[in-house]
Structure formats: C-alpha cells, structure tokens
Task: structure prediction
Amino acid sequence: NAGVMQNPRHLVRRRGQEARLRCSPMKGHSHVYWYRQLPEEGLKFMVYLQKENIIDESGMPKERFSAEFPKEGPSILRIQQVVRGDSAAYFCASSVRGTQGSQPQHFGDGTRLSIL
Amino acid sequence: DQQVKQNSPSLSVQEGRISILNCDYTNSMFDYFLWYKKYPAEGPTFLISISSIKDKNEDGRFTVFLNKSAKHLSLHIVPSQPGDSAVYFCAGGGNMRFGAGTRLTVKP
Result:
C-alpha cells in the first residue's frame, strides 16, 4: 500500500537549468497538490490538480513554473531556468476527493532542490 | 496572503506536561481546520481535524479547540511524550492554507 511517492528525493541543478519533480499519488487518489517549503518557513501552496486539469494555480509563480497531471503517469512540477531562490523542499500531496470538508491530504517525503 | 498564522515558532515542554500549540486565521469562510505533524526529512502527516460547527474535537491525547469569535484554534497534547517532538502545522481553506509551523520539543 504505497503512499505518495516523490522522486528524486534530492535534485541538484545549476542556475539556468531545468528541474523536473515527479509525484505519484496514492492509489485511488485523483487530486494532487504541490507545496514549497523554504528553509525555516511553512508550507506554501502552489497548485492543485485533478487528472488532466489544473484546478487552482494561485500559488504558482507566473513565470518559469508549470505543473501537469496527465491521464497516465505521475504529476510533474517543472521549473525552467532555475535560480538560487528556487532552492527549497517541494512537497506533493494527494487526496481521494477534493478540498471540501475535512479531507486530509497524504504527503510524500518531498524533493529537496538545490541550485548551485 | 497569510490566512493562517502560527505565531510561536517553537515550544519546549517537559515530558508528561501539557503542550498547547496555537493557530489564528483570518478567513471566516474556512469550514474545516486540520493539524499536521512533520518529522525532519519526512512529509507532514495528518493528526486531527475540527469542523467550524464544533468547538472541540478529541482523539486520544490530542484535542483541538476552536474559538470562532476569536478566529483562533489550539491543539492540546496531554500528556506530552518525547516522540511528539516535531513541527506542527495547522491548515484551513480547503486544506491548502498552512501556518508557518511550531516546532515542539518534549524533554524527557
């Protein structure tokens, strides 16, 4: 009964490169959320997706960041032309239903992105 | 838009005593609040929730209190155990608005 799987756990990129972070939700979960945690800060919501649809991307920077959750395969958070300020832990979560009510989210263990 | 705030970055208590973690929110439309616990190098895990129509929810050693008029909630852990040492986040707004977290240390 695998939980939310994120890979890679650690990713190192040089400034200007692209970073791709993957998230496989729990079995049976069709709702995926991405969060960013900067050092010594809380979780900042980035984007909420349902299969093939972006439901809420209000927390996503307008440039360089994109997310998808295709019909088949994992959800991908893509950061183009990375900068030092992108260094953070990126967490993915999934849920059976959406954001209504008390539906808890199940989190992966995160991808730690370091920009050289 | 910091709709959920945890103003205490850290809390230290003695084993066996009560831990009280606080959370304030600004959006009166939030209908549920959840608490998550996070250990280093791991993702948060769900702990307990409360509906806005209630003022208390209890689960074993964990109790969450909600004061809607003050837009304030608190998590009580009694008795505190060393294994409770972690960062605790409160969340609202469809579960997507998180506070900055409070690092709890329970000393043996």
